[in-house]
Design a protein that fits this description.
Length: 250
């Protein structure tokens, strides 16, 4: 499988913006606006990018861009493919996840080193499309470079965090007892919908992709505990945003 065997490929057109090397993909609208505030970007000064917004700052070329919101592996893939075609080489994903580990609580920060592939997009990039539908629990790996940079920034801020495995799924309403127990046994700390696809595409396109996740809810006891309104969760989102803003010269 090569980067050029597809009939349709992401391209940079005449009117496409010239992105610098560093870009952030953001899952949530509130976190998108948080980054706008931290980076002094005007909320109403953006380009439409599919169903999302792309902030590129001022000038013809900017070194740092921000895009979102996005949800799910297929849409995340489209967004990532496009910003890579437009110039991005180092990409940070700022997302949320549910905890499936007893040791991870609402408001905790996770830096994923790898993601268990339980979504359908990655198989089209890693050569496993002929095995689609089979749960072989293959892994997608984050950029070691970006993991280290995020860790260093968190340590600099004296912010505790977890580093480890994430489970990525397509089906937020099919996180069953059986699946949670299965992925707990695999050592997963949490569950979300995008990172495995983003990491897989990063490898396929030969760019650096990493992530920082904030725990928004808990499922480890097989009862759902949402924490989207908790102050600790909101504060950790602020911290994650500050960490990313400190990496704009990644």
């Amino acid at each position: 499988m090569t980067c050029h065997d597809a009939i349709i490929n992401p391209v940079k057109r005449k009117n496409s913006p010239k992105l610098g090397p560093v870009a952030v993909l953001v899952s949530g609208e509130s976190d998108l606006f948080l980054l706008c505030r931290l980076l002094n970007l005007k909320e109403d000064n953006y380009l439409n990018l599919f169903m999302s917004r792309l902030y590129t700052g001022n000038g013809e070329i900017t070194d740092f861009s921000v895009a979102g919101p996005l949800v799910g592996a297929p849409y995340a893939a489209i967004m990532l493919e496009t910003i890579i075609a437009w110039g991005a080489k180092k990409i940070i994903f700022f997302g949320l996840c549910g905890s499936i580990s007893d040791n991870v609580k609402i408001g905790d920060i996770i830096v994923p080193v790898c993601s268990i592939i339980d979504e359908g997009t990655s198989c089209h990039y890693n050569g496993q499309w002929h095995n689609r539908g089979e749960n072989n629990s293959s892994m997608a790996y984050s950029s070691d470079y970006i993991v280290k940079k995020i860790k260093d920034e968190l340590i600099k801020k004296n912010q505790p965090f977890h580093k480890g495995i994430i489970w990525s799924t397509d089906a937020v309403f099919r996180e069953t007892h059986e699946k949670i127990k299965y992925f707990q046994d695999k050592g997963a700390l949490g569950v979300e919908m995008e990172t495995s696809a983003l990491f897989t595409i990063g490898k396929f396109r030969n760019v650096e992709v990493g992530a920082i996740l904030v725990v928004s809810d808990e499922l480890s006891t097989f009862n759902w505990k949402p924490g989207f309104r908790e102050e600790r969760f909101k504060k950790s989102c602020e911290v994650a945003g500050e960490v990313i803003s400190g990496l704009k010269n990644l």
